[in-house]
Every structure is written in C-alpha cells, then in structure tokens.
C-alpha cells in the first residue's frame, strides 16, 4: 500500500515538473527573429508616473508609432527600482531600460547593448557617463544642474531684490525671510532623497571640483569642518539650528512642500532644474519661479555641475533591438522630452527653452561636467553604510545631538569600512 | 442487503478518468472489494471504460489528495520554501542583488550584524511597539468582555470597533501623519482640552516619536485581537457559568476563575502574534517617517541594507537573525506563561 502512495507522490511530482517545464518554456526568449527591422512591440521603462497620468507618455508612443509604422510602444512605469531589479534578476526586463543606480560599469555589457551605432557619440554631453571599455551603454535622457529653486514673490516680500551670491548673503537672506514669516528653505527631511544634494553635490561645489567626491576614498576622516564634505553638512545643520527650515522639520511631505513653495509660503529648495516645471505645475506663475547656483563660498564665484538624469539603455536580450535603439534616438532627437522635463538637452546644440535655465547660466561662474562615482567610492559607502548618494548621511547629521558627534560616528564607520575593504 | 450487494448499475459504474467511490455516502468502501474481480466479461464495459478500476481505493485516495494538494504545495514551495533556502544561502554570500556571481563569505555577515551597533541597536526602537502590543491585548480583552455581555446595539459597536483593522494600512498611516502634523488634529484637540502644554512635535521629538508610531500600531491592530477574544468568549460553554452562578460566584470571581483560565491559550496566541509583530515592526515607520534614524527598526534597517547599500548577503543574514530572535522570544514567552494548555 505504501508503495502505491509513493507512486501517487511520484506522479504528482512528475506533474509538477511538467507544469514547471511549461513555465520555463514560456519564459525562454526567442532571439532569432527580426533583429534589424524597426518593427514589433517594445516595452519602455520610465520613472515618469506623472506623465503616464497626464497622457504625455501615450502621446510620445503615438508619435513614434506614426513615424515607424508597424511598431508598438508599451510603457512600464516604476516608483521603486527594486521591482525593476527583480525583473533583471529574472532575466526578462523592458526593451528600453533606464540604467539603475546600482549597476556598476563592468556590469553594463552583461545587461545592455552598446549604443555607439546610433551615431550620437560625438553629439552628446556626458557620453562617458555609462560607458565601459570604450563603448557607450547608457545615454542620459537629459542633463540637470543642481541649484536653488526659489519663489521670487517670497523674496520680494522679504525685501530681497536679487539672489544671494555668497554664502554670507545666503544666510542673511534666510534670516530676512524668517523675519517676514516665510519658511526660508525647505529641507524635506522625511523624504530623505531631497537631502542628497547637501551630502553629495554641495561638497563638489565647495571644492569647485567635480571629482572631489571620488577623492574621499583616500581620506580616513572625510567628515570634519576642514573638508568640503564636512562643511557642506555643517551648512545643512546650521540651517536647521537657526530655524530656517520647516518648523516641524522632521515631519515633512514632498508633495505638500512643493505647494508651499509655489504659494510663496516657503522661499527656497536646494534641488535641480527639473523641479522648476513641477513648482509651476503646482500653481506658481513661471515668472515668479527662479533658479540660482548654490552660493557655496564667499568669493562670489559659484560653480554648477551638470550631471545626467536617468540614462536610457537597450536590453541586449531584446527581440527588437533595432526598434528599441530607434526609440532611444527618437526620444533624444525628436520628442522634446528634455524641454518638457525642464532639463538641459543632452544633444549638443539643442537649445533649452526654459527661461530659468538661462537665468541660472548668467549667475554661474563656471559649469563643470559631473564625474561618475568610482566603483571604489560606491563600495566604500555601501560597506560603511553611509548613504551619501541618497541623503541618508545628511539625515544622520541633522538628527545627531551635535555636529561633532555625527562626524565622529560617520568617520568611525568610514575608517572601519576602509580597513575591512583593505583600501 | 447492504449497499455493496447491489449489482453495479450503469449509473454508478466508474467511468474512465473518474476513479471515484461508488457506494452511497456513509456506506463502507465497496469498490475495494469489487475491483479485484472486475473484468471485461463481468462488466460488459465499453472500450476505455475500465482502466481506472485497477487502482485500489487507497491509491485513488492518494491520487485525489495529492492532486488537490498540488497547487497549494506548488505555491508554498515556490513562494515560501524555495526562497527560504535561498535566503539561507544568500546570507553566507556577499551578493549585491544584481551580479550573477555569488562570493562565499562564511559567517562574515553574521559577525557584522553583532559588531555594528547601528544595525542591532535598532531593537531599542522596537521596544515601544512591544509595550504598545501588551496594552493593545489588555484593551482588546476588556472590549471583548464588554461586547460579549448583554449591552444595547452590541453588533453596531462590534462593527465600529473592527473598522480600523479593515482600513488599508498605508491609508491609516497617512491619516495619522496628518493628525500628528504641527497644528494638526491632535494639537487642536489638546488645545481645546486646555492641555496645550502637552503639545510637541509628535514625529520630530526623538523621545516621543516611537510612541506616536506605536500608538498607530495599537489603534490599527487591537480590533484583530478583540475579534479573536470575542470568538473565544462566545465558544465558552454556558453551563459552567450557570453552575458558577448557582454556587453564588460574583462577576469578578467568574471572570477570574472561569473566563480567564479558559482563555489562556487564546491569550497566548494573541501575545505570540503581538510580540512577533512588535519585533517585525515595519510598515508604520517605513511610511510615516521613512524610517529616519530615530525610528528605524531592525526590519527597516534590513531593507536599507538590501536596497540602499546593495548588500543582499548581509540583509539575508539579518532576516535569519530576526527569525531566530523571534523564535527565542516566543519560546521564552511560552515558557513563562506555562506552555501547556490547562483544562478548566
């Protein structure tokens, strides 16, 4: 009798294997068909859930399909990169991808097809951002500069006639705004990512060196009042300590704080040009929204760093690589997405139509091109569990009992990680 | 004449592909006796009719059970058991979540967890959820006792009190986020009560914030405990209470000597759920404060290690450590409360 039961179990197991086999067979990709023809259905990844809601994504798809009959564009939006990462682990991911932040350069050829045959290599900024061994795998959808987005009406109300050119002027303006009953600068502590500029961009601006962050791996104690990294974090902390941030600064809400800025109840946010259209969308007249480089020093020579937004890449396992590549090219050359997003077009010679960017250029002494984080720096940050890129480090500093206590904690973790990795 | 003595009528003759019992419900399994002598001459069966009959009743039972279990087992294996073994494997590697290679690092990850105060220290923040959970159980039990008595409109009250548990968890967190705002609902309420000196930054004051969060957890999950207590109370046999009242027991005596001892195993189950929930507090700090440093729990730290610092190996080890800790705490709790069920 026992044997028969086991026979049944075996039959069941066999059925399981068959069912499993069917699933495997379904997910195996067929790479053979029609690689070079611009046709077929492609899936395109995007972070712009807002553009899905307002129909812009659909409009782009229709325009592309009109130019290349026989193609069909399906958008896939995401809010959290971990879902996309899970797809990549599974081996089946969208045809047009965005390069996720944790993909290291040496992994690029594992997932993506080279884009050099698009013929754009000499026409774009930041060509080397996502390249490996001389081949380009990712092209930025547009470029951004970081700086302070501000409400001109709020500045006028506080009696400020022009944006601050030095750090001291910036502090004075904060005090004036506070006196006028306006939140001088919104930090957006709770959302964490808006704090990343303080830990990750401001140090480069203070050092006037786009490669400064990569030099941190050499230092045993990068967090001190003598280093640009430490000075940047100290500025953030000074803002909090003087009450220049939101009153309840540990309980903030990104959507809400945009509205406050649009209404002039708050004056500034340290973000990027991409935020300008969002503030306008929240109800501020375009002429009242301004943008200036962070006055990181007292010499009046303020630099800006131009870095990429999300970078397009093409899935190397895609059935329709040619279509996917054509779509990337179309997005960069013909879609007008950079202007829609308020960004700097990545194609050299394409003009931005955002007035705030022109204004920003006039106030900038020099625009530097961003340098990607070295793999060494990324590994060190991860091992030390100090979230410089995502703003977690700023949170730690703002939340600590004192600046010195925070620096001590961070330096300790940094030094431990360095010895662990053998740097 | 028993059910099995009747000749097989065409109606209940097993058809191919339907190896089922043929006797009326409740009768003895007769196909077992029939099947060995069943052959083509006896049955006058049409072609293809008889194959399944060579399976014994036991085999049929096994096939039936297994085929019913197939889907749940497949799901369990795919989404629980297989990932669990993978998790153990990852915890011994330094996998970054994406790379196709896995480097074996032995117990390195486990050593790191205990060496890093930032990771392990987060359990201090779980303490408020633990206390909140105990209060939650007491509160739920009292409400269940009240609702089990003969009060007016008790079904209405039951429904109203159960609502927090049905609400979407993220929505609840958002509601409380607005309540805790500066000059939000809670501050206004305190103002009206003349208690404005109690006002604080509910999510900003490090001494208060975890209690604010634990309160949300309390508010949302007490109805669940309450319903379980209520169900247990309603299943208690009434004759015990009758006997007690005949013996002249007071209400307190009935509660203390009859109700609570009978509820002991249910109280244990509720505490088990509450304690493991407190150790695994995640969604409330994650949504409400984005797990900022003073509110980070062990589980939000695990998420952070995996998805911010891309160290899936360490995060897997943290998940295993959490599992072991939950197991230990629950064992201690069972031991303290006397694991065996006592008959009342």
From TrEMBL, chain A:
SUPFAM superfamilies: Periplasmic binding protein-like II. Pfam families: SBP_bac_1. InterPro entries: Bact_solute-bd_prot1 (IPR050490), SBP (IPR006059). The keyword Signal applies. It comes from the Bacteria. Keywords: Cell membrane, Lipoprotein, Membrane, Palmitate, Signal. PANTHER family: ARABINOSE-BINDING PROTEIN-RELATED, POLYGALACTURONAN_RHAMNOGALACTURONAN-BINDING PROTEIN YTCQ. This is Sugar ABC transporter substrate-binding protein. It comes from Alicyclobacillus cellulosilyticus. The lineage of its organism: Bacteria, Bacillati, Bacillota, Bacilli, Bacillales.
